[in-house]
Request: fold
Amino acid sequence: MADTSGRIERRGLMLVLSSPSGAGKTTISRLLLERDNDISLSVSITTRPKRSGEVDGMDYHFLDLTEFNLMLNRRELLEHAKVFDHYYGTPQGAVEEALSSGRDVLFDIDWQGEQQLKQAARNDLASVFILPPSTEELARRLQSRAQDSADVVAARMAKAPDEISHWPEYDYIIVNYDIEDSVAQVQAILAAERLKRERQVGLMDFVKRLREWQ
Reply:
């Protein structure tokens, strides 16, 4: 069937962007959300403290460890992971509601989360891994953010080779030489994924009507 706008009814998709810290996935995510009204960010829960400027419920849902474990035990999370001594997770209910209504959901998560989403809902998933142009550029970007101490930057750089090793597990790979080019590439991926036959759940009825026309 067609929806109220006249378009063929479509199931939404989960678009995952992952990268080592500093490679650009958060900036790409922000620009994609600004330019595409049909995709929204999955707001994760986390046990880490709020950073300056972050808003509870918009950037993350900030919980203590007890609350996090309760949600985990109730199986209310699509995926969860421990990253740099803090826990992160994706509430399942809000995501399924969006997909069922034809809206796409963007995930800014690491490789652990991507693997769990793949196990839980492979048919709904399109995953993109963002690589930096070089190790030197990755270090420069981390240092220029001025969000973290030198020790934290060093820890992120030490973790980067392991994170990068998971690139073959993703559907698409983008090397972030230029942020605008990278955003355009993600937009092209999203456009193609939306057109996949199996996601257009109203296509059979639409084509049937076309064939019945005299």
